[in-house]
Design goal:
This protein is an alpha/beta fold. Helices cover about 45% and strands about 15% of the residues. The protein is built from 8 helices and 5 strands, in the order αββαβαβαααβαα. It has a 5-stranded mixed sheet with strand order 2-1-3-4-5.
Amino acid sequence: MTTLTNTALLHAFLDTTEKDIVPLIFKKSDLSQVMVASNHETSSPLLHGEINCIQKFYGLDAATRPSAKDCVFFATHEPCSLCLSGITWGGFDNHYFLFTYEDTRDTFSIPYDIEIIEEVFRVPVEGETPTQLANRALYNKSNKFWKAKSVADLVDELPEGEEKEGLRKKVEHVRGLYGKLSETYQSSKGDAGIPLA
């Protein structure tokens, strides 16, 4: 099996994000694209990008569709609880993302990913203080179903040098491009009747 390097993953993620709207699914063997899709939450609040991408992936001919375990799943935003479940039920053993929950909340003014996880799933343990509860991770990024990493994690794991610095700059460039696209989208979805818009 091909060993995927952080550098190869970063180039695949960033090059594709710059050219296409993601989430997307790559083959692990050669990082070729299997499926690219975006959200359609203006037609249904359940059609987040990840869910739409998984739905389209499973719409491919089963005889030629690669196994989800043989794929790399990449999303622009850290998947919400709905999408984490979709990735799990879809059989993917990994996912990567460009923007963290905190980025989504602070840069894109979308607090719901964090709020839903905290309100629905963050159950206090007996004897736990409010501070301990607040400091607990929102979800387990390495579990029996999959492993998750941000693009920033991948860059941080690279050895210091020109390549790392070049990829750090490329990440910021792509984040800026995506930010402009998001502004346009966010301003247009308010009239679509999306409950948590």
